[in-house]
Amino acid sequence: MKNRLRVLRAEREWSQADLAARLEVSRQSVNAIETGKYDPSLPLAFKLARLFDTTIEGIFSDES
Amino acid sequence: MNCTTNNPAARRYMRRFAVTMLLYVLFLVLAVWVFVHRHPTGVLAYALAVLPALPAIGLLAVFGLYLAEEKDDFQRFIGVQAMLWGIGGTLAVTTIWGFLENFVHIRHLDLILVFPIFWAFFGISLPILLARYK
Question: Can you tell me the distance from the alpha carbon of A9 to that of A7, in angstroms, rounded to the nearest whole number?
Answer without folding.
Answer: 5
